[in-house]
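The instructor's notes for this session suggest beginning with a concrete chain rather than abstract definitions. Hand out the sequence below and ask the class to guess, before any prediction is shown, which regions might be ordered.
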Amino acid sequence: MNLPLGCMNRPYVKFPFERALEGIAGAGFQEYVLLQGQPPATINAQTSPEEARRLRGIIQAHGLHLTMLPSSIPLDGGEDAAYATGRRLVDIAAAVEVPFLLEMGTRPENFDRYLALMRRLAPYARDHGVTIAVKPHGGITTTAEDCLRILQAVDNPAYRLCFDPGNLLYYANERPEARLGELAPYCVAMCVKDETGGLRGSVNVTPGDGDVDFPAVFRILRDHGFQGPCVIETLAAHDTPEAVDAEARRAHEFLNGVLAAL
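After discussion, reveal the predicted structure:
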């Protein structure tokens, strides 16, 4: 099984932006996600397309492809304000040819407002070649059932799932593979996160060292024709970029080994 492999900047966020890019590329990854602001590198709804293109150029110069941007849309300012923010995020993603917005969901009390927003925003995203990919992240996407509920309620091909097996353990103590067969038809990307302990254990774990059964997860995804990017979010925490580099290399080798065996 051959899938695009990448790494988010989260493990490197306390180090300089370009040092993170060097480490991720040096570990063998090709895909990159600027999940958290890493001054001077930030892309959000207030970022100009010109600045986003400049940052994409730096990322590309390190041999990496910017594959996702984080989506964070406040809902407390009203439906029109939320929709305007969502449109700006879609516009920025389209301007820099990023295929996915990584959506985190919301709190349960905001379910109806969130659903209305995504039903309104998804057609705009589709028209601009962008897919909104929600991931298990607590709140309205705590469990597999929660994820299925919102995916089916929005019911748009531009609103899909970024599977996060570690978060199902972390937020719900739910085995990631248990209902993946139901989720897999919606899955367009994967947040590669391991976890140990279950239900708010630790996610500062290098993939392969925790409780996620990655071979089982990838078998199910393969059987449903999954071809999306798989991007590591977390690694074992260290205080030096060289130590994080070593974890990134080890994670890359682990994932390649799992995929080669399928």
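Then share the key points. The mean pLDDT is 97. The chain has one domain: 5-260.
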